[in-house]
Amino acid sequence: MVTQESSSAAASMQDREASSLDKEASLDKESSLRVADDPHKVPPYNPHVDISNVDERKLMRKIDLRLVPWLALLYLLSFLDRTGIGK
What we know:
Layout: H1 2-37, H2 56-85
């Protein structure tokens, strides 16, 4: 009797694991289909893209040169707004 209960419990656990794996596989399939349907969405990881020749320092400098001036302007406007409230 105990062996039947333990074997049925093990079988039910295997069924749950198999169903969870099936759900994960279907979710992966659905997400890849959604990405493939929308040409503007890019998957977060693409194994076919070669990034070995990317110089991180140059990339970070380019990003900094594009972002820092705008952030400085926003900071200045925020400061001016705060000083204008008191008057």
